[in-house]
Design goal:
The chain has 13 helices and no strands. By secondary structure, it is mostly helical. The longest helix is centred in the last third of the chain and has 11 residues.
Amino acid sequence: MADTPEVIEAKEKTDDKKYYEEIVKTNPVLIEWANDEIRDNKEIILNAVKENGGALEFASDRLKDDKDVLLAAVEQAGWTCCYASDRLKADKEVLLTAAKNDGQVLYYASKELRDDKDVVMAAVENKPIILKYASYRLRNDKEVAKAAVSKAKQKVFGYLTEELQAEEEIKSLLN
């Protein structure tokens, strides 16, 4: 596939800070073609991720570890927490914000946050099948189970503990 005129221009202006300050307002993923210094510029990256959270992919590692940048990205597109540093994948505020937009993010959460009821509930409310990535303790939590089963019925039933699968209240939600 041939490059578009916008991509060709972005590749030619790899060092042009003024160009990227403006272009990220309308086509933020073109930040991919900027030099390392521009991709490490917090103001430019913040503007990019506010427009399209996916632009986080092209941010510097330092900015992928910046909570302000991550929160802006996950507020726009929850799934972008997959680009977060390990430190921020363990940050409850970041994961809770992301989970409210895209429950799939529980997959990227730290072990501790997979065992955090607030994070798991937000993720399950948004994407019930993600229950499979919750801790065993929370897959055995009746409130979490009810939230998941009431939305996705049989799809999540197999991820519940045997103890919860046997409960009449949970079974009644399958109908």
